[in-house]
Design brief:
By secondary structure, the protein is of the alpha+beta class. It folds into two domains: 35 residues, no CATH class; 93 residues, GMP Synthetase, Chain A, domain 3 (2-Layer Sandwich). The protein has five helices and five strands, in the order αβββαβαβαα. The protein has a three-stranded antiparallel beta sheet, with no helix packed on it. It has a two-stranded antiparallel sheet with strand order 4-5. It is globular.
Length: 167
């Protein structure tokens, strides 16, 4: 896809959202099922059912997916798609590359060993290693716009209002 094709695909949506802002409001949903064997949660990804479970650092056997890994994978997926869309719009050629997300956890918090230890990631590092002839200026724009428009990145950077309920 080139920048013209991308603009043609997105222009009707942009016009619709400008004319009717409520049309841009979409609720995404994820569903899981608990109660199977072990301490797991079956999650429908849209393509396949996956089993999430405890990380080995919290007593898991390593056979199930770790939700922390899944969070980093979502960041990689979203930032990778966003980066390619931005590069296409800016007409920056990317011949290939890789994306890495690393996150630092202190499992003392998760296991309740130390009440002062945080539960969750302390730091997350996202790195793009790109095969491109883009200039430093183009890469700076690419990175800035990727950060700005990546849904998962922005959700982590500016956490949304959360609520939880049980029934």
């Amino acid at each position: 896809m080139d920048s013209t094709e991308l603009r043609m695909q997105q222009q009707p949506l942009k016009a619709l959202y400008k004319d009717d802002p409520t049309a841009a409001l979409v609720t995404l949903r994820a569903d899981g099922v608990v109660g199977g064997e072990g301490i797991t949660c079956s999650v429908q990804t849209g393509r396949a059912m996956v089993e999430a479970g405890l990380h080995p650092a919290t007593g898991g056997d390593g056979l199930s997916l770790c939700s922390g890994d899944m969070l980093l994978q979502a960041l990689v997926a979203c930032s990778g798609v966003t980066l390619q869309a931005v590069a296409t719009a800016l007409e920056i050629t990317i011949a290939g590359g890789s994306i890495t997300a690393e996150g630092d956890l202190d499992f003392r918090g998760t296991l309740g060993v130390d009440k002062e230890a945080p539960v969750g990631f302390r730091r997350i590092r996202l790195n793009f290693d790109l095969d491109t002839t883009a200039t430093e200026e183009q890469l700076a724009s690419l990175l800035k716009l990727t950060e700005r428009y990546c849904v998962v990145y922005q959700t982590l950077a500016t956490p949304p209002e959360l609520s939880v309920s049980i029934s």
